[in-house]
Amino acid sequence: GAPTGMGQANVFVDGELVSEVGTGQPDSCWIQHNPRNSCVYTTNNNGGGSISSFKLDDAALELVESEAATLNTPLDMDIHPDNRFLYALSTGHNDGTGQPRIYVYEMGCDCALREVQAIAHGLETEEMRIENDGVLFGVVGLGLK
Asked: Are 107 and 64 in contact, with CB atoms under 8 Å apart?
């Protein structure tokens, strides 16, 4: 298991824990599996933010990169239906801008992530949300069709 305060990813088969691996990062949250490359990704949203990558082989999980990508306070992520791209929502809360972004990563066969785009257009900043609605966080989830 992971040290106290650090995140981990677990694999269950028929309800039984068969593998657990620490991310080396605090507060792992969202997890996605890509059957195309047999990779698993977790968001780690404390202490700045990152995405960890793992290789899944016969229910055994191996950490590939503790920080496959860095981004500001990742809140959610999803994999495109073609299994080539990972989309991650960053709140922008900890970088001083309050500007949310959707990061798009190409997923390699080695579980590496290569950033191909960061989208901010159309996403209100925290300052705009407070002025308009009195709400700090406006973007709280991500879904793909």
From this structure: no
Residue-wise pLDDT for 6-37, tens only, equals 666 766 766 776 777 777 776 777 889 999 99
Query: Does 4 have pLDDT greater than 70?
Result: no
Instruction: State the pLDDT at residue 85.
Output: 97
Q: Please state, in angstroms and rounded to a whole number, the distance separating the CA atoms of residues 2 and 107.
A: 25
53 in Cβ contact with 109 (< 8 Å): no
3-state secondary structure of 31: strand
- Residue whose structure tokens are 């088969």: 13
Q: What single DSSP character describes residue 113?
A: E
Output DSSP code: residue 124. Answer: -
C-beta separation of 53 from 41 below 8 A: yes
Q: 140: which residues sit within 8 A by CB, 6+ positions away?
A: 75, 76
Q: Is there a contact between 54 and 41 (Cβ–Cβ < 8 Å)?
A: yes
Q: What is the pLDDT of residues 49-81, one digit of tens each?
A: 889 898 988 878 888 998 999 988 888 899 999
Where b means 16+ CB within 10 Å and e means fewer, 72-94 reads bbbbbbbbeeeeebbbbbbbbbe
